Structures are given as C-alpha cells and as structure tokens.
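PROTEIN DATA CARD
Card holder: Dermatopontin
Chain length: 168
Origin: Lymnaea stagnalis
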Amino acid sequence: MSILASVVLFVAVAAAAEAAYVNQLGQPFDFKCPPGQIISHIGSDYDLLLEDRQWEFRCRAANVSEVCSSSGYVNGFGLPLAFTCPGNQVLAGVQSYHDNQVEDRRFNFRCCDLRSKAPRGCLHGSDVNTWGGKLLLEVPRGKAIKGAVSSHDVTFEDRVWKFQICDI
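Structure generated from the sequence above:
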C-alpha cells in the first residue's frame, strides 16, 4: 500500500471513529437503541483539558419489547451512581448532561422489557476504565446490561464505571 493510500485510510478511519461519538464535550446527549435492540457496546474517551467524556454506543437485536421506562436522573453531581433496570428490563438507552462548574454528568437510563424470561446469572464486573482513561465495554451475545455503578473523583473530575451484565 502506498504512503498516500495509508494516510487516506488513516484519516478515513479516524473520521469514522470521531463521528461515532453521541456528544460533543460539555454537551448533553440522548441515545436510544432502535425498537427491538439493546446496548451492546459502550465506549468513552476522556478529555483532560475540558474534563469531560465523549460517549459512543452500539446496539444489537435482542428479544425486547417496545415497553420501556426511563429511570429519571439517578445521580447528583459529584455523587456516586448505582442503578439497576427494574424487573425483567435491560439497558436500551442513556441520557446525560454535563455541568461545567462541577465537571460531572448526571445520567438517566432507558430500560426495555425482555419478551422472554427474566435476566439471570447477573454479575457486577470490575472497573471498565481508570480515572481519565479510555472506557470500553463489549457485551457478549446472549448477555445484556442490567445496571451500572460509578463513582466521581474531584481530583480527576472523572468517573470510574462498573456494569452489571446478565444472561438473557
């Protein structure tokens, strides 16, 4: 491959990766999977200068209905977050907004009903990011996100995340 072709390919891949973010730094976002789908990928990159994260999500088909509920905002700025989708629901959307004075985000989760049996074998994983580090969660097929836990640190002005993953 020529050097020019390599540069063009790199720029195209970088632009595609950047375009995957659902928010600009410091800005709100409201991501919802299409009907019949659940979140299967969560990625996030931290910006040290603006002390915020850009987020990306991907969805995949699952046996979920269009009966969904919103959690409302589940955390205060700078405070711990602990959320579990109710009943037989799993994660299908995330909404968030940022406060530049506190340098933190509040989160609202969208959960949708499984059409089949309730989630089972649920486990809280380990941290999926470090303070200021890249966050990456890939949910294997046959599993879904049921909940999330995060804590905020005022020194790093960032959150560390864990997710509850269940068999579906």
